[in-house]
What we know:
The structure holds two protein chains of two kinds. Chain A is α/β, with parallel strands linked by helices. Chain A has helices at 37-43, 46-51, 84-90, 110-124, 136-148, 162-169, 182-195, 206-209, 214-223, 240-254, 275-282, 307-317, 326-340, 346-360, 399-414; strands at residues 4-9, 15-16, 31-35, 80-82, 94-99, 128-132, 151-157, 174-178, 199-200, 231-235, 264-270, 321-324, 369-374. In chain A, strand 10, helix 10 and strand 11 form a beta-alpha-beta unit. Chain B is α+β, with helices and mostly antiparallel strands. Chain B has a single domain, classed as Ubiquitin-like (UB roll) (Roll). Chain B contains two helices and nine strands; from the N terminus they run βββααββββββ. Classes of the chains: A alpha/beta, B alpha+beta.
Amino acid sequence: xxxxxxxxxxxxxxxxxxxxxxxxxxxFGPLEVVYDYTKIKKVLTRRVIQRRPKxxxxxxxLLPIDGEPQxxxxxxxxxxxxxxxxxxxxxxxxxxxxDDTVAHPTLSFKDRVVSVALTKAKEFGFDTAACASTGNLAxxxxxxxxxxxFNRFIFIPATLEQSKILASIVYEPNLVAVDGNYDDVNRLCxxxxxxxxxxxxxxxxxxxxxxxxKTIGFEIVEQLGWKAPDSIVVPCASGSLLTKVWKALKExxxxxxxxxxxxxxxxxxxxxxxxxxxxxxxGTDVIRPVKPNTIxxxxxxxxxxxxxxxxxxxxxxxxxxxxxxxxxxxxxxxxLSKTEGIFAETAGGVTLATYIKLLKEGKIDKKDCTVxxxxxxxxxxxxxxxxxxxxxxxxxxxxASFEEALKKINxxxxx
Amino acid sequence: MPVxxxxxxxLQKITGGKDVVEAEPGKIIDIINALxxxxxxxxxxxxxxxxxRRFINIYVNEEDIRxxxxxxxxxxxxxxxxxxxxxxxxxx
Lengths: 415, 92
């Protein structure tokens, strides 16, 4: 049974059929998938969802596919960790980590969006999948595309960390490193997508791909015992994830899975690339592009495609936006690791550091039930911690040498 | 050497399927209006009230015109103009 009605322009409401297109021909507004919620409401209930395998596909009626899922059959449904140590450390009441550092198989939330994008690409009959990426998306398209049998073209900024390059090339896609930043890569890919009939997951497949992000929102609600939290903090690059998490909560209300949504959505950016947060603080809807300069490379999009909608979602929900420095990002990565044992990539540092800042500013209540979206694994950006961690104790392989080190450790503890 | 203008897929219906068109040098906004004479409807799709629409990014020689002089950015002989829908890319 089909639950998708078609595509619709978010700006001028013109309707389009389900095709690999992504912008309105008339006003260039983004196209969005339209569902038949009346039909979905009849089949998708809490009980139906709970009986299904613990993957992102348990909400498949709210995802834009026509047939059965074909890609990412083990992806999604990551842990929602009750962060008691971190809550105590920060003096807050109830705090959770939506932990996509352990997303299957490539350790970031991009496994979700790519599962949906490549299933859709198969339905459209594409044999080549492509993407412009700051790293995480490259890994997900490379890996899922390998298993699903796609020829793959992956475009990345040439300055990407070596470890991120390796985590793509191992799946043997055609990896193309472009001399420029993400915005340059993105523009080039738009030009390439005009010419080659490939499934560019974040260009011509974007309306479908972006829907995959909703599964983070669905899972948060389910894992909290079918309730929406008071506040959610979401990292923003293009602004798409934040927009979709908000949409997920509203859809669950629409089909009667939850009664109320009183959640406030908070957007997190790195100060070195904060066009959306800047617009929020200046009280304008106009997002001025910036040249990114931050260690949070997975968020370094100076020209955020969904920035405008992310702003609207934050405002509509009564939330706020904030941005944090590179030092605050590193400190937050360390805090999350030592309190909760979760090693997040720089984007996760951005999320936690922003939460801490919003708490200090009194913009998030300490009594709130808050969820932090931690979207990628720390091993992907380990370089940023070079020289910033505690010291290693190097010893000789004998007891005396160990005890000498132990003395130092104990002295340090007493201090 | 004229100015080369790269046309995105959603605009190619207006340009008769062409993905590259040529134009005379001048300000971005004047180039758009000049192309509208050859390809009626061209300017209306890209502009609203004389301003480039929010969902369109225009680049001159790979630089976003918002980092240059916006609609008044001067385009010289041999320059390349690229029109890109703003919504492409990203997902975080």
